[in-house]
Amino acid sequence: MKRARKLRLAGVAVGALSLTVVTSVPLAYGHGYTTAPISRAKHCANGTVHNCGQIQWEPQSTEGPKGFPSAGPPDGKLCSAGLSQFAELDGQRGGAWPATQLSSGQSYTFRWHLTAPHSTTDFKYYITKQGWNQNAPLTRSALELTPFLTVPMNGGRPANDVSHPGTLPTRSGRHMILAVWTIADTANAFYQCSDVTF
After folding, report:
1. pTM, full prediction
2. Which class does domain 29-197 fall in?
3. Domain extent listing, the chain
């Protein structure tokens, strides 16, 4: 009787331990952020910008619905990928976000760091129009909705560190670049906003 009870208790303990292990292992979905030009999310993670909320611990997690610009996160919430826990990324802070200095019309290498690479449709880069409203959260009407750079992956899995050479659009003054990494085998994409000046 005692032996049967001990075996039952041991079975329960093993089952509970197995459940803990299974539920604590994260799913291996894609995650990543842009490092060139450095994104708002990465500025927060680096501590360059303060009062960022939860994004400071997970700059790789701005994941929202794919299909931009016809689908995807709502206007005004593009930088946070529509996630309320990352809403600090959507505010313009009166132009206080650090901006990467770029040269209009020149060659530039865009870079991502992927903490969990995943099967990928493509990477696309969008930029704000000349004269966009710098005091309002980013919207589709503020962006050129034809990407100035598209890097097709056709379902391939990128490396952890990705480089995309391209040519910058002709611009002057302060702008934002929206980088979109579209995952091939989920319904999501990753959205990264970078502040730049030309």
Report:
1. 0.85
2. mainly beta
3. 29-197
